[in-house]
Design goal:
The chain is of the alpha/beta class. The chain has a domain of 241 residues: Aspartate Aminotransferase, domain 2, CATH 3.40.640.10. The strands form 2 sheets. The protein has a 7-stranded mixed beta sheet with strand order 1-7-6-5-4-2-3, with helices on both faces. A 4-stranded antiparallel beta sheet has the order 8-9-11-10. The protein binds pyridoxal-5'-phosphate. The site of pyridoxal-5'-phosphate has 15 residues, from helix 6. Pyridoxal-5'-phosphate binds next to helix 6.
Length: 432
């Protein structure tokens, strides 16, 4: 078989998968080790046809897939890989760009800057900020905090809320910084009055925390950071996408005074894993932290940007291609419509929970995630979640708020309909 024939078969498989994914159990119904036990312990000696790979993808691998593309995937932060971006991934692999300096990929270097400038404008970020793509928000936050440490090597603390993502702790551990956790208020927002920036090189404000999507006060923190000479990094990994709709921009009021912000296109912007967008108004600080040019990479090219100067990786994938495809093929209107629909569906679900005796809403809902629980013991709530997930009908995850076990329904798939949300609610109630 030729590349062309195999390619047609692969695209055919992808198209049929997306058509039938709704019928598959959302959470993989396998036990640990099951996939491994079905595959040989060693690679084959003789080459095998690609058709065999495709067959085993269907028969052996697919049963072990938790379907993030399923319309009733409501766990963590639900995502979508939109069709144009899936195709762009194929094309990016075809071109196989390794964009460490400009000349190794003028295309990836410049398209990344174009796509991030477009997205910055769509999200209402200030013009002129430097943007680049990292694999994940964990890496983006690591890069931002490395820049902060570079500017203030004497200050060894990072301040963030007790609800900040663990990626802040991980970055601090790698950078030799101490994390100072600030308590939150009744709506799970960082309490600015409890912030102490003495000896801190940075603060992290979260716009859309992982548990409840609460929003820290960016403007107040920006003012405090300016006064203390600390870097303000905004982690908007999930909720940053919502800023494509002006009505949500209250959530990052003061953003123009932040030093950096991360938004994951692979969370709520229809882009397949991985694509984390990091913008900064101080690219010089990122370069100071990361630029390291060995002899073999020296050139006389007169260029503004070599991507490897802005983060830990040298080689970089052509991630901008899929983001560019999403921005073009959905457009501002498509992105806005889906974000608004997800928030509408979440509001609807929240109403159903409020209206049903025996159920409670457990946190305010700024965006498309509803935190709720059965008015019962933690064990009973955990058992409900287990039953729902084991049914394969829907997949939800949990958190703990004020010491109580809480269920989360996160809407973020572009394939989710009102019927899907209704079905999840029916399955939840039946699981009691
Ligand atoms: N920040 C927030 C608020 C998150 O919710 C997450 C993950 O869900 C992250 C950062 C880490 O994201 P990534 O998996 O891209 O490192």
């Amino acid at each position: 078989m030729s590349f062309r024939d195999d390619g047609h078969a692969a695209v055919e498989w992808a198209a049929s998968y997306l058509e039938r994914v709704r019928e598959l159990p959302v959470l993989a119904q396998v036990r640990p080790g099951e996939l491994r036990s079905r595959l040989p312990p060693s690679a084959p000696d003789a080459p095998e046809p690609f058709a065999d790979v495709l067959r085993d993808l269907e028969e052996v691998v697919l049963p072990a897939v938790t379907h993030w593309q399923h319309p009733r995937f409501f766990a963590y932060f639900a995502t979508t890989a939109a069709e144009p971006a899936i195709l762009a991934e194929l094309l990016a692999a075809t071109l196989n760009q390794v964009a460490f300096i400009w000349r190794t990929s003028p295309a990836a270097t410049e398209l990344e800057q174009v796509a991030l400038a477009w997205l910055a404008e769509l999200l209402g970020l200030p013009p002129g900020w430097h943007g680049h793509v990292e694999d994940t928000a964990s890496t983006s936050t690591l890069a931002a905090l490395a820049a902060a440490r570079e500017l203030r090597p004497d200050a060894r603390a990072v301040v963030c809320s007790e609800h900040a993502h663990a990626s802040v702790d991980k970055a601090a551990r790698l950078l030799g910084l101490e994390v100072r956790k600030v308590p939150v208020d009744e709506a799970f927002r960082l309490r600015a009055d409890a912030v102490d920036l003495d000896g801190a090189c940075a603060a992290v404000a979260t716009v859309g925390t992982t548990s409840t999507t609460s929003v820290d006060p960016v403007a107040v923190l920006a003012e405090r950071c300016e006064a203390a000479g600390a870097w303000l990094h905004v982690d908007a990994a999930y909720a940053g996408a919502a800023m494509v709709c002006p009505e949500f921009r209250w959530a990052w009021e003061g953003i123009e005074r932040a030093d950096s912000v991360v938004v994951n296109a692979h969370k709520w912007l229809a882009t397949p894993m991985d694509c984390s967008c990091l913008w900064t108004r101080r690219p010089d600080a990122l370069r100071a932290a990361f630029s390291l040019v060995p002899e073999y990479l020296r050139t006389t090219d007169e260029v503004e940007v070599n991507l490897s100067d802005y983060g830990p990786a040298l080689g970089r994938r052509f991630r901008a291609l899929k983001l560019w495809a999403v921005l073009r093929c959905l457009g501002r209107e498509g992105l806005q419509a889906t974000i608004r629909e997800h928030v509408r569906l979440a509001a609807l679900f929240e109403e159903w929970v409020r209206a049903e005796p025996g159920w409670q809403v457990a946190a305010p809902r700024p965006f498309s995630v509803v935190c709720f629980r059965r008015a019962a013991s933690d064990e009973e709530n955990a058992a409900i979640l287990e039953r729902v997930n084991a049914s394969g009908e829907a997949f939800l995850s949990h958190t703990v708020l004020d010491g109580r076990y809480v269920l989360r329904l996160a809407i973020g798939s572009y394939r989710t309909t009102e019927d899907d949300v209704r079905r999840a609610w029916d399955v939840l109630r039946a699981a009691v």
